[in-house]
Amino acid sequence: MQRIKLQHTARVIHDINADVIGLQEIESESVLKELKAEINRQGLYYPYYAFSRNKRGGAVSVALLSRYPITSALSHPVSANSDYRNILEGRIDFKGHPLRIYVNHWKSKMGPESMRIRSAKVVKKLIDKLDKNTPYVLVGDFNSHYEEYRTFIKSRRHNDTNGVTGINHILQTIDEDENPITYTTMKSTGKNLYNLWYELPSDQRWSHSFKGKGEALDNIIISPALANSNGIEYVRGSFERFTPDYLFYKGKVYRWQQSKTYPKHHTGEGYSDHLPVWAVFEVK
User: Which residues span the domain enclosing 245?
Assistant: First the structure.
């Protein structure tokens, strides 16, 4: 079964054909190496990787695969508690220019917003130490909608923070009046962060479905330095979901299938319950 899951995951990675890939829910470093080998068998080669595991957290690891050299990789713990995943910071030499990528996997919606804020504060502390001209990208499963401050406000289960959210308020993807930060605003002010979901029509802004409702839990968020026409630049309009037919079944995301009988086990069919998202960056 493990081999089939690796083959299916490798197929998606092969078909996206990205230069750098952020991964969540990697079971172990050895599994990551097996995935690299399977991708290689399917015709792509990623010579560089980084891996971060919360030693008490089980199969909740995050990782990076890259065609470009990863000059360093740091694991930033959020908590010793197994409910939290580390933040992985990968420093990449992108065509002679440094780029930092922070891979995230925040607490699921099984927990309240205060738990996601805890992860957000770790990320915020890291990026606040950087020079304003340092290009960086935040990627991963934030378990947060790009406008979480609007979607969770009436949820007693989630809103234990008096309306404050990790992705919007802590990371500052909205302004002081709670207006979403646009690319133009970020570029002109040189502050705040821009969530690439705004590049898509509103009906396409989802990567996961829960009870028939689309959720944009997987985010790519960019820094002002990626919009200043000096070095690495985000290519506007390039953000997309990866939506080939084989990732859907009967109109729904074709998630890993489990047996209907006990003990429950994977049947070797399906893919992730999250759609991949991707974007293009170039050197100006």
Answer: 65-283
